[in-house]
Amino acid sequence: MSDRPAVTLAISLKLYLDIPRTVLWAQQAAEIARGQPTVRAGDVRMVALPSLPALEATRAALEGSDVQLGAQDLFWEDRGPYTGGVSGSDLRQAGCGFVEVGHAERRTVFGEDDTIVRRKLAAAVRNGLTPILCVGEDSSDLDGSAVCVAQLASALEGLTPGTAIDELVVAYEPVWAIGESDPAPVEAITPVVAALRTALRHDDRVAAASVIYGGSARPGLLTRLGREVDGLFLGRFAHDAERLEKVVGEAATLL
Predict the structure, then answer these.
(1) What is the pLDDT of residue 161?
(2) For residue 2, what pLDDT band results from cuts at 50, 70 and 90?
(3) Looking at residue 129, what DSSP letter applies?
(4) How many domains would you assign to the chain?
(5) Sorting pLDDT into bands at 50, 70 and 90, what band is 3?
(6) Where can this protein be found (predicted)?
(7) What's the Cα-to-Cα distance from 58 to each of 74, 119, 149, rounded to whole Å?
(8) 1 has pLDDT over 50
(9) What is the rounded average pLDDT of the residues 195-208?
(10) In this structure, is residue 113 part of a structural domain?
């Protein structure tokens, strides 16, 4: 596992934007990337995760930029009688390099449990997609480090023996901070990130890893966290191009 990975800024559009607004956002993100030398050099990595129907239009809007494409979900099987399923193989063919796995909203709204997360992570790895694995405790009263390390271990249990993950992005998203006006306090974030890094460093299955923070992440947070994290998982606060540009600028100052 590399000690100093690139600063990763992953942006999920969730289901906030329709297709035309997604395309406009993607065009703006591409221009931000073109204007930032650290993104062009690969030191700051931007990953856009649009809704599935907007995937192809987003890919076209990002063409010629260094913004990478990801999907918000996948199914655990690649082919078969699974109505509505999203094949990891198809996502790869559609130009995706990343896929989100295990977000709290998938767990609470769609009923996904640890077994499903485990199978989806294995499907992502099998299809050459870099998983963005979301972990996080439900309450600020819980031991976030213990909960998140256990969730990480559980997700990795689904890998076929001998399987190696070229890269894993772990997004620490405390459930109690998602959708709030402010992110979790820095003093709550850093020990959990440190515990996840330690667990990853001692896992021979993971060749390279990053630990990023999500959960109402917004401009100003990365400056306060510094290299205590490897980047941010951004949601609604990055759907505005000006705010996104501020975060990209903050990431550049960490190098």
Answers:
(1) 84
(2) very low
(3) P
(4) 1
(5) low
(6) Cytoplasm
(7) 18, 27, 34
(8) no
(9) 96
(10) yes
Q: Is residue 151 part of a domain?
A: yes
Q: Is the pLDDT of residue 68 over 80?
A: yes
Alpha-carbon torsion (196, 211, 102, 95), positive or negative: negative
Domain presence at residue 1: no
**For tokens 């070229």, what's the residue?**
166
Residue whose C-alpha is closest to residue 65's, from 32, 30, 24: 30
Q: What digits encode the pLDDT tens for the residues 205-220? A: 999 999 999 999 999 9
Q: 125: closest CA among 171, 82, 76?
A: 76
Give the residue among 194, 96, 207, 92 at the shortest CA–CA distance from 156: 207
H helix runs in the chain, sequence order: 19-34, 37-40, 55-62, 88-93, 104-110, 114-126, 144-156, 186-201, 221-225, 241-253
Catalytic residues, by residue number, are 103, 173
Question: Residue 154: which pLDDT band, with cuts at 50, 70 and 90?
Answer: very high
- Residue 160 and residue 166: Cα distance in Å, rounded? 14
Percent of the chain with pLDDT over 70: 99
Output the domain CATH number for residue 65: 3.20.20.70
Q: Which tokens in the block code for residue 117?
A: 């997360």
Give the integer Cα–Cα distance in Å for 75 and 9: 24
For 113, other C-beta atoms within 10 Å of its C-beta total 10
pTM score, two decimals? 0.96
> 25 in a domain, yes or no?
yes
